[in-house]
């Protein structure tokens, strides 16, 4: 491995929807090129890469794992990845370390929700994809299609996958709520340059069988082919050139037997029976072999095929009673799967040198240096390192740069006991607490530049490290000595003393220095790699505690190990002191709990019911935006509160933000944190992480400002399509408001806004208005530094001037009160969502008295510090304003894709109805008895959904859920019947059952220990005691 030439290396991953055949395909590649690790007869049944017990039991892949293969003097690092949505973080780690991706699609099921996700992941990471249409045999044996029908189906799938890729190329991200995958919206309109690029790309599809980057396969039976394989065979038979046949064997090309010419549709002279060459010369032969095996009377046809293609099949296998064995024997020798796949990998996928030059803008985006006072030597060295990564420099003197995409745990007993020369290795050195648990943590890494050696001293850089800031960055960099390097062979590990750039390795000795991912560099002057993008967020949260309180220390150690071993799990401590585990879904959570019990903590656990997150908002429609704005800027309809000492009066008005603006603020939280926190050096990287299609030199602040404006405009236009004048008025008012953003919340980066009071507000009756400052508007570029809130024309009297100074000091208290209110709403202490507040705080001078300092001291003793009073009053006023404006609960929604046979549609709809699901559409899959149903399912109702669905449909239906969006419940949680019709329908109010919104609110309040209005005793009678005298 140390001597492998970078041009002879290929790093590939296998990506697909769940159960589309990734691990089975990997089995066949390992059997043929894995150096005897797997017998060919076990390929497809053993599932070599699924070596965890849980993976074998559930028959799904749960982690990405690597294996090194050899093919025609090429070294191929193959990474198998999961297809289940719960483990999509593993797909991200696999895609980052790869240069090419094999995208599998089931020929019967077609493109599914996870296919969209993995194609998007490949596009973001700039990985070169190749397409494998798997399970072709199902078209023959299950669906009984004719060769022409099968060709039409395959053509449709290839076009559909190309359509997805062209959508990404043309910057049209699938960001609408009804799209298959909820992805982040693009940065706006397509620029002129990208428009030209789109036209060019549109002319040439990504996947073209005639180019050789599409393989048709049946992984279970071990056969597969590309158009090139048949072109070379038929070149001599038909007397045509192989190059011409490659182009003609896919698409509307026909072979005219009379003239022995390849012609188009028109050249066939209207013969409706004419079949394309792909059908006539390729599919027809396949169908004949399958029919010959299935029908005993057609054995002669099978012998004819064997003779035609010069196959060497042992007679013993041909005489087998099982037709499946005969079929595998013939097909795997005629069209060996591994040859078709690996030759495509070598020809169509880039080597590390080519790939890194293409991917450098994603891995290490260029950063503009804003400061002139930076060390020029450090900057020059950082540029040199970037160029080394771009060129994949594998010389020993080149700077060594490595990216660790995840940490994974292996039992210490699985580590190699001896080195390549027979020396005994010390596997227990420096393991600490990991060694005590019997687990060793290895880093799953790829070398992008230089040579990595065991025992080498290297720097670990976190994602926030900046080489130009010197001493202030010490907490983001650590020096560490590597212990061992291993070549990954599935579950096995092979010790290697050194590895060159372009290779994928496992590194021992970093367990105490890396939590999830990091960049390793031989020099301090290196930019860290850009962060990886995950498709979903960990939304399923449970509280865990040990059954025996004495085991708490073991549980905390186990949680630390689990947090390091899983790239996606989140471990936190809640405000109530609970240990909360956040996972991507039920399957992911079950695996985490099992790992905690059996591997990391080894204690018995108590797991709470899932803790579902909600948001709180108010009722409001997009159509009446102008009315909302008028009510917000008018003087009426506000909530007024006074501090306990009577010195400050707070008036709060609230309005609902447009939905698109709320979504943009929510999705840009990381970028907002960088901009507001003055982390200009990292703003570029945050934007690169969130919006992969932004040009390198585009200003992130300008981009975000444009997205905010686009969001406001789109909502205004959607509500006022016919009235342009009305829309213009709304837009002008919004522009004025956006110049007055005082703060965002909660945590200064949330989807709620507090605006500064109207600058025309004057002091009244001795009260002075706290003006605030539009800092956020200035940082986002909506307002100049000299905003309207600058204090001007201050009265000259000393008392009033002192009040103004006190008002400036109290600005932070007003903002803190807003932050507290937006983090815990009035319904059930959940964060607020999409609300805009205007807070007017008036302060008055102290009442005249002989000793003002004494009075001030008495006031502070009696009511507490004045700043605290203002903070509490603002918080209470904001919460009261929300309660006054018809509050609503907002819940997270899953987008669900369900597949079921026709006879089980009824039970499936019954399950959806019980789960409060909303069906979007249903369609029958062409050429199969399956229905595909798309629906939105509330996250709170999704627990146990898949199990219940399988139970009610006898295991015939399957479901896959992915987090889609937040949606307000239309029900009023405080509904009381008032009109005659309502009283007639719901009763007089005393017997009205709580609606869904109220039940959800009460459940959350009960869990948080908040007071709940409920009858403790529903029906009671006085107990009568009857004395029995004997």
Automatic annotation (TrEMBL):
SMART domains: EFG_C (SM00838)
Name the record gives this protein: Elongation factor-like 1
GO molecular function: GTP binding; GTPase activity; ribosome binding; translation elongation factor activity
Stored InterPro entries: EF-G-like_DII (IPR053905), EFG_II (IPR041095), EFG_III/V (IPR035647), EFG_V-like (IPR000640), EFL1 (IPR056752), P-loop_NTPase (IPR027417), Ribosomal_Su5_D2-typ_SF (IPR020568), Ribsml_uS5_D2-typ_fold_subgr (IPR014721)
GO BP terms, alphabetized: cytosolic ribosome assembly
One Gene Ontology cellular component: ribonucleoprotein complex
Domain Tr-type G positions: 7-243
One Pfam family it belongs to: EFG_III
The entry's keywords: Elongation factor, GTP-binding, Hydrolase, Nucleotide-binding, Protein biosynthesis, Ribosome biogenesis
Organism whose genome encodes this protein: Morus notabilis
């Amino acid at each position: 491995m140390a001597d492998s030439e970078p041009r002879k290396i290929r790093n590939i991953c296998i990506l697909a929807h769940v159960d589309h055949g990734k691990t089975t395909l990997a089995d066949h590649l390992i059997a043929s090129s894995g150096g005897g690790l797997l017998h060919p007869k076990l390929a497809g049944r053993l599932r070599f890469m699924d070596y965890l017990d849980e993976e074998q039991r559930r028959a799904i892949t749960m982690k990405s794992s690597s294996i090194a293969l050899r093919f025609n003097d090429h070294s191929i690092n193959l990474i198998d990845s999961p297809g289940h949505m719960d483990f999509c973080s593993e797909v991200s780690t696999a895609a980052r370390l790869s240069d090419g991706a094999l995208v599998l699609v089931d020929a019967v099921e077609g493109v599914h929700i996870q296919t969209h996700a993995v194609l998007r992941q490949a596009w973001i990471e700039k990985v070169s994809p190749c397409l494998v249409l798997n399970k072709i045999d199902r078209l023959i044996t299950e669906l009984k299609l004719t060769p022409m029908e099968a060709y039409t189906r395959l053509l449709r799938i290839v076009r559909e996958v190309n359509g997805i890729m062209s959508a990404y190329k043309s910057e049209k991200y699938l960001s609408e709520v009804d799209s298959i995958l909820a992805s982040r919206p693009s940065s706006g309109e397509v620029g002129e340059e990208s428009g030209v690029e789109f036209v060019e790309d549109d002319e040439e599809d990504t996947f073209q069988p005639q180019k050789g980057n599409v393989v048709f396969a049946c992984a279970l039976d071990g056969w597969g082919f590309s158009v090139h394989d048949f072109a070379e065979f038929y070149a001599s038979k038909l007397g045509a050139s192989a190059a011409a046949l490659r182009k003609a064997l896919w698409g509307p090309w026909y072979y005219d037997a009379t003239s022995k010419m390849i012609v188009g549709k028109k050249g066939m002279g209207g013969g409706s029976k004419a079949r394309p060459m792909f059908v006539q010369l390729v599919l027809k032969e396949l169908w004949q072999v399958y029919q010959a095996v299935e029908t005993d009377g057609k054995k002669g046809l099978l012998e004819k095929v064997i003779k035609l293609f010069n196959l060497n099949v042992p007679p013993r296998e041909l005489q087998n009673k099982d037709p499946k064995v005969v079929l595998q024997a013939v097909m795997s020798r005629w069209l060996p799967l591994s040859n078709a796949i690996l030759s495509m990998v070598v020809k169509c996928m880039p080597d590390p040198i080519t790939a890194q030059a293409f991917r450098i803008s994603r891995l290490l985006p260029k950063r503009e240096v804003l400061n002139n006072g930076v060390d020029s030597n450090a900057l020059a060295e950082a540029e040199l390192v970037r160029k080394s990564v771009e060129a994949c420099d594998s010389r020993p003197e080149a700077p060594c740069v490595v990216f660790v995409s995840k940490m994974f745990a292996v039992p210490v007993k699985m580590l190699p006991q001896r080195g390549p020369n027979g020396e005994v290795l010390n596997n227990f050195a420096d393991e600490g607490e990991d060694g005590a648990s019997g687990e060793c943590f290895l880093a799953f890494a790829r070398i992008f530049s230089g040579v990595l050696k065991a025992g080498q001293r290297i720097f670990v850089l976190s994602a926030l490290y900046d080489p130009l800031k010197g001493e202030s960055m010490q907490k983001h960099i650590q020096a560490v000595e590597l212990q061992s390097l291993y070549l990954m062979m599935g579950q096995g590990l092979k010790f290697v003393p050194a590895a060159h750039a372009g290779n994928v390795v496992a590194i021992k000795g970093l367990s105490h220095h890396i939590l999830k991912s990091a960049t390793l560099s031989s020099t301090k002057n290196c930019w860290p790699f850009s962060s990886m993008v995950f498709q979903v967020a960990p939304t399923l949260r449970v509280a865990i505690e040990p059954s025996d309180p004495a085991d708490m220390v073991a549980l905390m150690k186990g949680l630390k190990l689990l947090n390091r071993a899983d790239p996606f799990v989140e471990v936190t401590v809640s405000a109530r002191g609970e240990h909360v585990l956040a996972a991507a879904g039920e399957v992911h959570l079950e695996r985490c709990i099992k790992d905690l019990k059996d591997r990391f903590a080894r204690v018995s656990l108590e797991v709470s019911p899932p803790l579902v997150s909600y948001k709180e908002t108010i009722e409001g429609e997009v159509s009446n935006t102008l009315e909302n704005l008028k009510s917000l800027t008018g003087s009426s309809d506000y909530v007024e509160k006074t501090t306990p000492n009577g010195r400050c009066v707070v008036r709060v008005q609230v309005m609902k933000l447009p939905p698109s603006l709320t979504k943009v603020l929510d999705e840009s939280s990381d970028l907002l944190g960088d901009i507001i926190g003055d982390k200009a050096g990292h703003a570029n990287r945050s934007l690169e992480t969130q919006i992969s299609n932004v040009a390198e030199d585009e200003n992130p602040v300008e981009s975000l400002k444009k997205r905010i404006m686009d969001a406001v405009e789109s909502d205004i236009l959607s509500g006022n399509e016919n009235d342009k004048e009305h829309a213009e008025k709304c837009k002008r008012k919004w522009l004025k408001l956006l110049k007055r953003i005082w703060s965002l919340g909660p945590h200064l980066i949330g989807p709620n806004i507090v605006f500064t009071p109207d600058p025309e507000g004057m002091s009244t009756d001795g009260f002075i208005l706290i003006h605030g400052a539009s800092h956020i508007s200035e940082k986002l570029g909506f307002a100049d530094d000299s905003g309207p809130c600058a204090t001007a024309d201050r009265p000259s009297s000393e008392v009033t001037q002192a009040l103004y100074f006190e008002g400036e000091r109290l600005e932070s208290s007003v903002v803190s009160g807003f932050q507290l209110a937006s983090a815990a709403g009035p319904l059930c202490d959940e964060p607020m969502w999409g609300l805009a507040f205007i807070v007017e705080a008036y302060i008055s001078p102290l009442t005249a008295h002989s000793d003002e300092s004494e009075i001030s001291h008495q006031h502070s003793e009696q009511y507490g510090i004045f700043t605290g009073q203002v903070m509490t009053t603002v918080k209470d006023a904001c919460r009261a304003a929300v309660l006054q404006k018809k509050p609503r609960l907002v819940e997270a929604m899953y987008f669900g894709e369900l597949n079921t046979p026709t006879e089980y549609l009824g039970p499936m709809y019954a399950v959806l109805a019980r789960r409060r699901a909303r069906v979007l559409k249903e369609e029958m899959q062409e050429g199969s008895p399956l229905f595909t149903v798309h629906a939105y399912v509330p996250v709170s109702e999704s627990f146990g959904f898949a199990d219940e669905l399988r139970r009610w449909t006898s295991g015939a239906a399957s479901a896959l859920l992915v987090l889609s969006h937040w949606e307000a419940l239309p029900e009023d949680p405080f509904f009381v019947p008032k009109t005659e019709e309502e009283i007639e329908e719901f009763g007089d109010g005393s017997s009205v059952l709580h609606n869904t919104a109220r039940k959800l609110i009460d459940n959350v309040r009960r869990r948080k220990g908040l007071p709940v209005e409920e009858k403790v005793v529903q029906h009671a009678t006085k107990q009568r005691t009857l004395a029995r005298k004997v």
